[in-house]
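#structure-requests
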Amino acid sequence: ELEDALVETLAARAASGPLRCVDLAGGSGANVRRLAPRLPFAQRWDLLDADPRLLARSREQCAGLRSADGD
């Protein structure tokens, strides 16, 4: 599955420290809500979007997310 391949590839890159993920047109944070809990390593997400209302919504909806290792 594509998601499993993505996690495997990202895990190899995250071995040197927290993985930084940049979501262009991040909107309401659907990608971070889907992927962050499935990535078993430390991570930092930056969402970019032209609509400040969507970014405000993403902050609310993603506030409680933690990676699988608790970061």
